[in-house]
Design goal:
Length: 201
């Protein structure tokens, strides 16, 4: 009897904890700025989006994906939270965007939209640079789970196959967008593979 009660309490506790984590995830999504885009086409988990000009801060580091992106994230976090420079903090946005850069990886933070009109604070080190990305169109596939190399490759293959159904080839390399903190449970995480395209019709 006690074991049954303990099991029920554990299940209820787990359910409450799961609901709390889901609630935090929902709150985070509503509070965190994400880049605006126009939806060109939607097909299940795949979207074609038209983005305008985006202000970004980026860092490039050599090495394997996890190690290089970890270094990039820390450098960019020090920049936006004014730990490596003077002045005001910059609000964190989502997603963090990553792509290959030679033998290493580039990590990008999209800066808040206010920096379309205002110059962002100057980085204090050469490890970080700020720039604007030109308007572009991308195909994106959204998925949950821990975005390891295997899952990213599998989702990228699905997206490329979908594009080939329209007779399209990507106009550039894949990018990977991560919307959540590492502590977020896999089923609640949002990640995307992005492929730049020139048109969809």
């Amino acid at each position: 009897m006690a074991d049954g009660a303990s099991q029920r309490a554990w299940l209820i506790g787990g359910g409450v904890a799961g609901a709390a984590v889901a609630g935090v995830a929902a709150w985070w999504f509503t509070r965190t700025e994400t880049p605006a885009y126009s939806l060109v086409l939607k097909d299940g988990a795949i979207e074609v989006r038209a983005y305008g000009t985006l202000p970004v801060a980026e860092a490039v580091h050599d090495g394997e994906r996890d190690a290089a992106l970890g270094k990039g994230f820390r450098a960019l976090a020090d920049y936006i939270f004014a730990r490596s420079r003077g002045g005001e903090k910059i609000a964190m946005t989502a997603p963090v965007i990553a792509d290959r850069a030679g033998d290493g990886w580039r990590t990008r933070f999209v800066l808040p939209a206010q920096y379309l009109d205002l110059a962002p604070p100057a980085p204090a080190t050469d490890a970080v640079r700020t720039m604007t990305l030109a308007p572009r169109r991308v195909a994106a596939i959204r998925f949950a789970g821990r975005a390891d190399d295997a899952l990213l490759a599998e989702r990228e293959a699905v997206l490329r196959e979908w594009l080939s159904g329209y007779g399209l080839k990507p106009t550039g390399p894949a990018e990977y967008a991560f919307y959540n903190a590492p502590l977020m449970p896999g089923p609640l995480r949002r990640s995307e593979v992005l492929l730049p395209v020139s048109s969809i019709y």
